[in-house]
Amino acid sequence: MKKNLLSILSVAMLIVSAIACNSKDEAKTPASAAKSQPKATSSKVDLPNYRYVDIDTVLAKYNLAIDYSEEMLRLQNNMESEAKKHESSIKSFANSMQSKYQNNQYTEDSYKADERKMQQMQSNAASSLDKLQRSAADAAMAGEKVVQDSIKNFIKVYNEAHHYEAIFLKAATLYIDPRLDITDEVVEGLNARYNKVKK
Prior knowledge:
This protein is mostly helical. The protein has helices spanning 2-36, 55-61, 63-102, 108-162, 183-198; strands at 50-53, 166-169.
């Protein structure tokens, strides 16, 4: 009976020591596992609740802004073409006057008449170009307002889903964590909405 008691105590001691060893290993496991695992990079949850947009990139990639930019280029080209047309016409008339003068084909009255015509041509050219410039400036202002309003409206709708406390312009910061950049998302959303309306 004494032998049986000793055997039972021996088995019990083995079980107790095995349990103790296991609990020590378990206590060590989280620390050692933490050491062996690489540190996780901070997720979006760890980031502050604000984001930023690079407006230059938005304007370069937003199809509405691109369309207005192309329209401005077209107006600029029209203005240059009109200016060249007036310049060519005035230069041609001036050469004609020079030739007539050198060949003594002018009377005093006819010379004054051509002089008045030349002045009228110059005045018409200036007036026409001024009108085109004002029209282009008005179109540029209107286009800029449409693009800005479109971006602001989209940001408002976008933020209703994301609940950021603030969305900044990158240009207004000296440094900002690149992980806070939502420019690509904004461009993608703007273009998806614009292309849908354009269809």
